Task: inverse folding
């Protein structure tokens, strides 16, 4: 079965709420999506795989290296700040320089949104991993938010790798899956996505077709929106 993946890069503008058709309040994230341009088309011959590369965001042409400038010149477009490749079996249907807009998606489509989460700095185990902490009374002194034991002193006599401990939190690539597109404002280039997406206001996000759409739910149908 051919796998067709659509996607667009954009900027997270923030969250708000709108009213649905049933009069209920729907929390949505507003994303200024695109316009993006196609800068490369990968095909099994000669690249070995099928994908489409899209670019987004303005950048001063004087601030890009000659190899990068040549890559954009080959596609017949001005340099852009961000590049991403989408693996899709219908890459051959794209052409160099083609514009990809917010109209790639429709109301009710299920999408995966990828962004960089907010950086929290150094955080303890309760905030970082959701630990319960130590007792609030009964002899616990000034150790209420401590992790507790991190290993036996004699056996194994060391701390295992990967043990959840305090440390730097956030600032990582995060993907939230199977969110529903509540509405598309083609005139202003806006996507209204139901729920929260990673990152802070002004952050770069990638919106692409959901990888785990529920069985039987087709994009653009009420069943697909309800499943999210």
Result:
């Amino acid at each position: 079965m051919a796998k067709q993946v659509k996607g667009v890069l954009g900027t997270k503008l923030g969250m708000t709420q709108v009213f649905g058709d049933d009069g209920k309040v729907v929390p949505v994230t507003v994303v200024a999506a695109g316009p993006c341009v196609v800068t490369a088309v990968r095909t099994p011959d000669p690249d070995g795989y099928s994908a489409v590369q899209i670019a987004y965001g303005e950048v001063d042409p004087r601030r890009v290296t000659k190899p990068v400038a040549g890559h954009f010149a080959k596609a017949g477009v001005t340099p852009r700040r961000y590049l991403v490749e989408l693996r899709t079996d219908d890459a051959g249907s794209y052409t160099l320089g083609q514009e990809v807009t917010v109209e790639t998606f429709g109301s009710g489509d299920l999408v995966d949104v990828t962004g960089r989460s907010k950086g929290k700095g150094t955080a303890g185990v309760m905030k970082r991993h959701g630990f319960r902490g130590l007792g609030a009374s009964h002899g616990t002194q000034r150790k209420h938010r401590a992790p507790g034991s991190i290993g036996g002193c004699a056996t194994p006599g060391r701390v295992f790798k990967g043990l959840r401990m305090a440390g730097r939190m956030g600032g990582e690539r995060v993907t939230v899956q199977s969110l529903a597109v509540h509405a598309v404002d083609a005139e202003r280039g806006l996507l209204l996505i139901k729920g929260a997406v990673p990152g802070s206001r002004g952050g770069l996000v990638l919106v692409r077709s959901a990888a785990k759409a529920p069985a039987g739910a087709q994009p653009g149908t009420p069943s697909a929106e309800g499943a999210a």
